[in-house]
Specification:
746 residues; alpha/beta; Beta-Lactamase; Alpha-Beta Plaits; ten-stranded mixed sheet; five-stranded antiparallel sheet; 28 helices; 18% strand; rod-shaped; binds ligand C2E; binds calcium ion
Length: 746
């Protein structure tokens, strides 16, 4: 009997070699089957194939070596092609195995091992009968052992080495790629969250900054903790969705979110963009669109919206609404004098006072530079509006504090009641503005209700303004000349040119009415230029070298080419510059002191004289006298008319004359209507007098141009006994007096 164990134990070295080969094969296969972190499907297939090949080869080899270790005591050999069969079988099975499941792999592996074993055994040929050696073609056993053993060992070692090098390469590559990826992610402006099944698996730097926390606090947390209500979106192409990002301190940050596919199956990337700045700027823009940035009060747009609401509410509640239009008096002068910052301080304080005065249901808004408005809703009218207007006037007149200095300022208020002042918001506003202007006409710090007549006045004004546009073209303007004389000799020193407008339908319109309109409608410059040219041309034709005084409105004065215009007119008309006197009012100077000084200096450089008109009616006539190079002042006729029954007025006139003397300025007293006034002015040494007593404004044709007769034909004895202002005015507007009657002093 043949005992197999006995046979094997005859060659321990071969048994050991078989075991070693098998162990090596097993180790290599296991090593190959351990998947790398970065493996894709292809790499995993290659690994599986290589593992099976290795395992097959190893088992086959160890099997073969095992058989070689078998010493049956009989000659035996291998059938070459047959013994290679299991190997070929195993390799052929690999392709099939690559894509199969673990169960299939196990089954095929078992089949391969079994087939291998039996085919290996089948390839062995034992010659039991003859006991003689086999055909010389059979491979000798020793050669086989050495070849199979060495080959196997070599292949397995190489595979093992290759596998670990490949792994190391892959690991390195993974590390580099991971680092590159992290750098890229961290460099992104947007926050990035990598999530799987609703949990955060990684974040980039921007995201951690956005969330105000570190990676540790984020990884592993449910995404919905960070962004409550977040809905996982299937598609990557959808619109960004807005959410709130919850910060650790409890605050929320508005964000915009977009979903992207993640790097591996099942994971997603959430791109998170911070919207805080955008939202803040949107809010700021919204606020700016509705509120005044300086005072924080609603602006005109919001005010109108509030007014519409208040009117609608009033209709339903059957309660009254009043609109109070508040305008600061002479704010322009004050802010010009004290500077823009001080002006802004006044506006802020005014806004605070108004806000403190109103009830919760009311609205106060800033509508213009120094214009405010109050909507007083759901009130008992007109009593409550009157009370509020009274209060506004009183409290706005309290001193304002600028740099610890008290500054005086008043306001005028116009009150329009709904619906008497208008049923629509814009009409009501217009009415309140009209009422405010009406109040201002009465002086500073006053208030007034809107009255229907004001509307008519405005419409008349508008149509007059319209007619003014064509008046110049159609030759409706003319000039009157009023003399000013030396009080002692009654000799004529010059004439003041006064504009007249004969309206085709309305007749003569007083300049006090149309000059402000011409200024408002932007027509004063061409009209003023016409006056200047006409007056200069007229005066140049006179035989006597008397002065021609021309009134210059503020709009003309601030016009950039004014100095050039005057020079041009003088050149054109040939009038010597020292015969032209320009009369300007305080209002001309207050808008832009520096520029005004420059213009005045340039005009004086031409040789033209400058007179300050209506002296004493402004607010700071004295300070302007110090600042600007005047040649003359004209005392306003209100002082002169007061002289008779007001001893204080005489004192003031006397003081003005004395002061002008010390400043070496000429003084003209305007509006001299009585002998008594003339006597007083003579006594105080006034330089010139002008008024109805001495001569009314007359047309050029009515003037005596003869040099010899330029001396006023009146002496003290022939002066009219008395000319009352009323009589004078009606006489002036009446039919133009004949030359003869003018010459005899009317
Ligand atoms: P003003 O410059 O103060 O002119 C004097 C005004 O007083 C004239 O009124 C004149 O008719 C009037 N007047 C003269 N003497 C007496 C008097 O004894 N008693 C009374 N009660 N009034 C007297 P007028 O012509 O109606 O002009 C009014 C204002 O219109 C002028 O005041 C002046 O500011 C402006 N104005 C007149 N012509 C022009 C002009 O060509 N250009 C500009 N910019 N303004 C002009
Ligand atoms: Ca004047
Ligand atoms: Ca005047």
């Amino acid at each position: 009997m043949l005992r197999v164990v006995g046979c094997i134990t005859q060659d321990y070295a071969l048994v050991a070699l078989a075991c070693l080969v098998c162990l090596l094969a097993a180790h290599t296969s296991v090593r190959l089957l351990t998947p790398g972190r970065t493996d894709d499907h292809r790499q995993r297939a290659i690994r599986t194939c290589a593992a099976l090949l290795t395992f097959g080869t190893g088992v086959w080899s160890s099997d073969l070596i095992g058989i070689l270790a078998f010493h049956p005591g009989l000659p035996f050999s291998f059938d070459g092609p047959l013994c290679a069969l299991p190997l070929i079988l195993a390799i052929a099975a690999m392709g099939l195995l690559a894509r199969r499941s673990a169960g299939w792999v196990s089954a095929f592996l078992a089949l391969a091992v079994t087939v291998m074993h039996f085919t290996a055994m089948a390839s062995v040929r034992l010659d039991l009968e003859s006991g003689t050696a086999l055909a010389p073609a059979a491979t000798p056993k020793t050669v086989l052992i050495v070849a199979v053993g060495a080959g196997c060992f070599l292949i397995l070692s190489l595979v093992l080495a290759a596998a670990s090098t490949f792994d190391r390469y892959l690991t390195n590559r993974f590390a580099v790629e991971a680092r590159r990826f992290r750098t890229l992610a961290d460099a992104a402006f947007e926050g990035l969250i990598f999530e799987r099944e609703g949990r955060i698996i990684d974040t980039n730097l921007a995201m951690r900054e956005l969330a105000g926390t570190d990676a540790k606090a984020l990884v592993g947390r449910p995404l919905a903790d960070l962004i409550p209500g977040i809905v996982r979106q299937p598609s990557a192409n959808e619109q960004p969705t807005e959410y709130d990002l919850f910060l650790p301190d409890g605050r929320r940050r508005p964000v915009e979110i977009l979903w992207r596919d993640g790097p591996d199956r099942g994971s997603r990337v959430v791109a998170v963009r911070d919207l805080s700045r955008q939202k803040a700027s949107e809010a700021r823009t919204k606020r700016l669109a509705r509120f005044d940035p300086l005072t924080g009060l609603p602006n005109r747009e919001m005010f109108e919206q509030q007014l519409r609401k208040a009117l609608a509410l009033s209709d339903r509640a059957m309660a009254g609404v009043a609109l109070l239009y508040v305008d600061l008096d002479r704010f322009g002068v004050v802010s010009e004098a004290l500077g823009q910052a001080a002006g802004e301080q006044i506006l802020i304080q005014a806004a605070q006072r108004l806000t403190a005065m109103i009830r919760e249901a009311d609205t106060v808004a800033r509508l213009g530079r120094d214009e405010f408005a109050i909507i007083q809703s759901l009130t008992e009218q007109p009593t409550e509006a009157a009370a509020l207007a009274e209060r506004v006037v009183t409290e706005m007149a309290l001193p304002y504090t600028i740099d610890d200095q008290p500054i005086g300022m008043t306001a005028c208020v116009g009150v329009a009641l709904y619906p008497a002042g208008g049923t629509a918001a814009p009409d009501l506003i217009k009415s309140a503005v009209l009422a405010m202007r009406g109040a201002r006409d009465g002086g500073r710090g006053r208030w007034r209700y809107f009255e229907p007549g004001m509307d008519l006045l405005l419409r008349t004004k508008r149509s007059l303004g319209h007619d003014l546009r064509t008046a110049l073209k159609e030759g409706q303007f003319s000039l009157n000349y009023q003399p000013f004389v030396e009080p002692a000799t009654l000799e004529i020193a010059g004439y003041e040119a006064l504009l007249r407008w004969d309206h085709p339908e309305r007749g003569r319109v007083p300049p006090a009415e149309f000059i402000p309109l011409a200024e408002e409608f932007g027509l004063i410059v061409p009209i003023g230029n016409w006056v200047l040219t006409t007056a200069c041309a007229e005066a140049a034709s006179w035989g006597a070298p008397v002065i021609i005084a021309v009134n210059l409105s503020p709009a003309q004065f601030v016009q950039p080419g004014i100095v050039g215009t005057v020079a041009e007119v003088l050149r054109e008309t040939g009038l010597p510059p020292n015969r032209l006197e320009l009369e300007i009012t305080e209002g001309t100077l207050m808008d832009d002191t520096q520029n005004a000084l420059g213009v005045l200096t340039s005009l004086k450089a031409l040789g033209v004289k400058i007179a300050m008109d209506d002296f004493g009616t402004g607010y700071s006539s004295l300070s302007y006298l110090r600042k600007f190079p005047f040649d003359k002042i004209k005392i306003d006729r209100s002082f002169i008319s007061d002289v008779e029954d007001d001893t204080e007025a005489e004192t003031i006139v006397q003081a003005i004359i004395a002061m002008s003397r010390s400043l070496r300025l000429d003084v003209t007293a305007e509006g001299v209507e009585t002998r008594q006034q003339l006597a007083m002015l003579r006594a105080h040494g006034c330089t010139f007098v002008q008024g109805y007593l001495l001569g009314r404004p007359r047309t050029a044709a009515q003037l005596d141009r003869n040099t010899a007769k330029m001396r006023w034909p009146l002496t003290d004895n022939t002066l009219p006994r008395l000319v009352t202002p009323v009589a004078a005015r009606s006489a002036e507007r009446g039919p133009v007096p004949s030359k003869a009657s003018a010459a005899h002093g009317r």
